[in-house]
Amino acid sequence: MRIVVVSDTHGNARALRQAVLDQPQAEYIIHLGDGAQDVDDLRVEFPEKTFLQVQGNCDTGCAWPLQERLTVEGVCIFYTHGHKYNVKQNLIELKTEARLEGVQVALFGHTHVPMMEYAGGVYLMNPGSLEFHQVSAGKGSYGVLEISPSGIAPSIVRV
């Protein structure tokens, strides 16, 4: 099972579309907020894919949840934008929530900086931002989460 994880597209629907095209085997696309409305046109273009999204701090006036859970192939995934958990300061609140939720993967965005970490039995992934950003060396990025009988394999793709 392949899952594409994106965040902080901020209206760059073209980059989001390209990420989906670059990962044809992906069955799920998870958007972690701040531009989640960019998903709307892709739902029509790629009806065979499952699109999931949460609200970011810039997604004003929308009804998307702030956080969600997904279980695929026995792996429980918690996903959120991250602002509610103060991820720009540290990951303590997010790690605590992941442990309380009993998940194997916690996905978050908000910082625009890609990162992966394995801590306390939980994979943490921030896919970064698909838009140009100086903090992330000016390159956009997204995440790929591979789930198979042999385990969980997260990766970051630079675009």
Give a written overview of the molecule.
This protein has helices at 13-22, 40-45, 92-101; strands at residues 2-6, 28-31, 50-53, 67-72, 75-80, 105-107, 115-119, 122-126, 141-148, 151-158. It has 159 residues and is α/β, with parallel strands linked by helices. The strands form two sheets. It has a five-stranded mixed beta sheet with strand order 3-2-1-9-10, covered by helices on one side. The longest helix is centred in the first third of the chain and has 10 residues, at 13-22.
Write the layout of secondary structure elements.
Layout: E1 2-6, H1 13-22, E2 28-31, H2 40-45, E3 50-53, E4 67-72, E5 75-80, H3 92-101, E6 105-107, E7 115-119, E8 122-126, E9 141-148, E10 151-158
Parallel strand pairs: 1-2, 2-3, 5-6, 6-8
Antiparallel strand pairs: 1-9, 4-5, 7-8, 9-10
Low-pLDDT regions: none
Q: How would you classify the helix and strand content by structural class? A: alpha/beta
Principal-axis shape equals globular
Estimated share of beta-strand residues: 25-35%
N/C terminus separation = 22 Å
- Biggest sheet overview: 5 strands, mixed
Can you list the strand order of the major beta sheet?
Answer: 3-2-1-9-10
Could you tell me the number of beta strands? 10
